[in-house]
Design goal:
The structure is a homotetramer.
Chain A: E1 2-6, H1 11-20, E2 27-32, H2 41-44, H3 61-67, E3 70-73, H4 80-89, E4 93-96, H5 106-113, H6 120-125, E5 127-128, H7 131-139, E6 143-145, H8 149-163, E7 173-178, H9 193-196, E8 201-203, H10 210-222, E9 229-234, E10 241-248, H11 255-265, E11 272-274, E12 292-299, E13 304-311, H12 315-329
Parallel strand pairs in A: 1-2, 1-3, 3-4, 4-6, 5-6, 7-9, 11-12
Antiparallel strand pairs in A: 7-10, 8-9, 10-13, 12-13
Helix pairs in contact in A: 1-12, 7-12, 8-10
Chain lengths: ~350, ~350, ~350, ~350
């Protein structure tokens, strides 16, 4: 199958290139970048020498549509909502790694993203691409709204307990911690090595655009409107997201019962790994891979459940899950091209 | 004044040495280390060349008592409870950086530290050394139980709102994040650079020995028995602790009102700095200094308060606060020797 | 083909496991560890959950010999020289990642490794496994002495110019810089995160055991006895080695001529990438991959050549090159299982 | 004494602020920044809250000249050469941390800095501020050209052996390694955390503007024209420079003799610390301090001397040495305000 990448010059695009190289059924035919059109990929990313000798092209709708079967969008927010409709008309399937089509309620997009929403028709037709939860819809999707990194870690972490109604959806608090690659390859003082190294910062507390995305999908799971408290912190590492989630239990449940519920729920999910009692995930244990690792503890002193969920933000939180979705859409084995062992140490 | 350091070979001891060098009223007369007795300090820490040319000695109660007026204990837990009574008998004031005398209820020590408790008489006579909250008791103290790093950040972060009864003590959740120096200079696979770098891990969730210390002092502030949910995470940095605290509001309060309350409460406290709305602390902004930086936000969507509190775990969370307490005990200006500007970048 | 790994619990062993998972012709049948025998691999390395569910076994010569065709040794120095002969007798091919069989002159081993040498018969039969230089010998080898990390970067960096006699072998100076994973998963104060982070140290200057290994192979290339100056430095990163090499030119040559020579020499070598003028390698550009990146500059002011060579010490400097050698020994395509794109960022 | 800082918003300026806070004889009256004039210092650097509550002002020659006795210039290259003459006319002493007045030969400035040179009169009157070597000239200086970070480490490392004529000046090779703060607070893709972390890069090899500065001062020491080979590498740390220097011995000398020579030469220099045989400097051992640590080894196999020299680039390599020079100019004790213990760990 022939694929293209719009926004190939960012970290999400480059991670797609890394992973697609391992994929036996796919060839990358087009790499598009608005800001660096005309450059060779290797000028921007010398690590791709001998691997991808292509040039970054400007966007040419017809030219791309003739040459690819599926497109990945790894563009900044606000871009894909303008372009994807043109490719859908031409029957090119699209997987969008940005947030443009994730919120069914366009007004929420306008509020949290400070931008005009996509056409409602497209919002309603888009499929939210959290593979483990929405596999059957993804299979028939034409436009996949690939989830954000924090929502992926959070929703996989909450799903079994919330589905089982063992926890109170009104009590959800999520403490998110992210490596700096989530900020993209954008120059700003706050992203400089000298400012980030040996440093941890809180940022955008209560203002992060992933809040409505999480809330929308918690409602899909629980059937109830849900308001969450969600905070975000920058950690001095390049890759990795960890969400520590706090939630009140509806009844008294022991840690082991909770772990059993999670293991049972995810027993057929290769990419979700549930830890044993008192063992906790570490982001490095998923680096470079599509795994989501989850640890659980019932705090019996306060009757709360603590969930710790870790992913590589660029893989399961972006490019890896996009490829997982592509596999589902094509009826390929879901692990195809994604059986990468985490890079440890 | 002549001081000594028991446990001078650990990171806490070495940080005391760094800070005491700037102190105009103090000379370090004795540096004691059980594990490295007989070594020169500079063999263990070459950065001290030209600064401290002393030898690490073995413990000799009489010899020390004759030569110092005040002792700092930077020993692993379980050590000072055996030795401090011998010095108190000899009228040497003691500041203990370990947890041995922090819990008034010795049974809690036995449960959380898995060790026998100190004599009850000493537990009751010890003064909890969170300077900003217990200054007058510290002034007359002979045995100061210097607070743990997480409790310092947490209690300073909660004090004004809890004192004002604006928040519900039953709802407190603390998400703690720490640099690796908190683990001390102990060799274990989990502390190796290759295991910690580019990694974030949760650890000891619900089991951390700082839980009863925080709860005991929350009760002192609020008058109510309190159970907290407390989690801890290792962040790939050497210094710094950040606690993100979640708590339900008792009534509707705006962020700015909360900030005003904190600014008012701490208006005479040089070492506590309250951030403006939507500005958040970063651990590097306190590195090497005795500051505690606090950011605040009322999440109006969920009626919760989010508090972010940051300190350098080795300074305000250990050696710096110990010196601050020594200053109070001696009626010196509290900032003496502690006006260090954070090392940034 | 069935393979086993002796010393599977170290970083070299674990990196073999990561890479072999991608290899289409190989199954790992045995993972042996002296120090952690009886443990599941996932207890030592949770990142291997769902990937390798094997147990670390103790060494059982007969049992292993019956079950594998080829063995990798990722053992500390001094181990394989005792064990490999037992497997060679049983016609199991061996690839040794340690230094035990690299030096033809056993006395040099004794001097630099402070240990008794292997049997001379085995030393003489061992093939030095720097694939690009000794491919034909490796093809027929039964015992491959896989090169050290510094020698790999150094020899690939010097080979074309030395072979062409454009540089003076008596003038070679090598400034080596390594990430900390080269020190293995060994607990020592010097390897702790708090000691390594934000730190760079020189170590073992003039004493490193890779000196005789480099000199032996420089003589193979140039035909002359050679003495090098070689220094080593620890850099606060987990993976990566960079060698900056200084050497006097025999005649006046321009940078571009030198680059052309290197490009021509390595034109059929997928894993060696020569940079253009004034472009320099970075270790992250090879992380997780088997590439060796080389940059070159003639310093016309001093008539010296500067060579910068970068590899991932655990891949091209250890496990990756071992697999490359296995591919050569089996007449598989040399890239089999090794077409991994560097993990960037 | 009243001082001002021109370029107070960069890392050099902020480090001056940190150090001057400890200085008993100085008050900072003016902080000038072209790019952020009108901002409070704490807006740019929140770590300065409660410490410096001043505003960054635009440059006003008369206003500054009336209010300060001495000015520090921490400006990008090309700025101070225009402004310093105006202050010299007004009898304000100037210490310039940029390279504008370091090269006596203005043509070399034009070649290496790609900019027009300062007036020759000022170039000739400027005093090169490597304190340990040029103390008496500095004492009477009005315009101090504070040395670059690499030259400081290099020249202190070479001085005793070169002065003693034990080494061949024609053979000097310097392998420089620097933390990223040397690049300043400038946004560029190459300085982003995600690009620098877990990465080491060579850069500007043979092109660095510190080459003529080093060569000029080597000639002052040895009396001979000298050409060096000098390379530079970025290391994933914020602070710290290490120079590893290779040089041929003129005669056979043992390591201990060399160490003795260095200890003798620097016996009265508090800030230069010579290591014992087989002990090597580490950058973290000087972090935050004005020390320069030097390790030495004669490689008897090749008759070369290896020198390893480490400083904190922002302290001894910039702001600290500037203050040391100010102390000399004012006949204050040279250590005044600079007795900071390195921040370790």
């Amino acid at each position: 199958m022939k694929v293209g990448i719009i926004g190939a010059n960012g970290y999400g695009g480059v991670e797609l290139l890394r992973l697609l190289k391992q994929h036996p059924c796919v060839s990358v035919e087009k790499t598009i970048s608005h800001s660096t059109q005309g450059c060779k990929l290797t000028e921007q990313y010398p690590h791709l020498n001998n691997v991808y000798e292509m040039t970054l092209e400007k966007i040419d709708i017809e030219g791309i549509a003739r040459n690819v079967d599926l497109l990945f969008f790894a563009t900044p927010s606000g871009v894909s909502k303008e372009i994807i409709p043109l490719f859908l008309e031409r029957e090119i399937k699209c997987i969008d790694l940005s947030g443009d089509f994730r919120l069914k309620n366009g007004l929420l997009y306008e509020k949290w993203y400070k931008n005009t929403q996509a056409k409602n028709e497209h919002l309603q037709n888009a499929t939210y691409g959290l593979t483990e939860l929405f596999r059957s819809e993804i299979k028939n999707g034409h436009l996949i709204a690939n989830p954000g990194c924090y929502p992926t870690a959070t929703l996989l972490g909450l799903y079994p307990a919330l589905k089982a109604k063992w926890i109170d959806p009104k009590s959800i608090i999520i403490d998110g911690k992210s490596g700096i690659s989530g900020a993209g390859r954008n120059t700003s003082i706050g992203n400089l090595f000298a400012e980030i190294n040996e440093n941890m910062k809180a940022y955008k507390i209560g203002l992060h655009q992933h809040i409505p995305e999480i809330e929308q999908n918690l409602k899909v799971i629980s059937g109830e409107e849900t308001r969450i408290t969600f905070t975000t912190h920058l950690v001095p590492m390049t890759r990795g997201i960890m969400c520590t989630i706090y939630v009140d239990l509806m009844e008294s449940i022991r840690t082991q019962e909770m772990i059993d519920l999670y293991k049972e729920t995810y027993k057929n999910e290769y990419f979700v790994r549930i830890r044993s009692a008192n063992e906790w995930p570490a982001t490095k244990e998923v680096t470079g891979s599509n795994f989501c690792d989850i640890g659980l503890k019932v705090d019996e002193r306060t009757n709360r459940l603590v969930i710790v969920s870790a992913i590589d933000n660029l893989v399961k939180g972006a490019a890896g899950q996009a490829i997982q979705n592509m596999n589902v859409m094509n009826d390929w084995h879901e692990k195809t091209g994604l059986e990468l062992v985490p890079l440890y140490p």
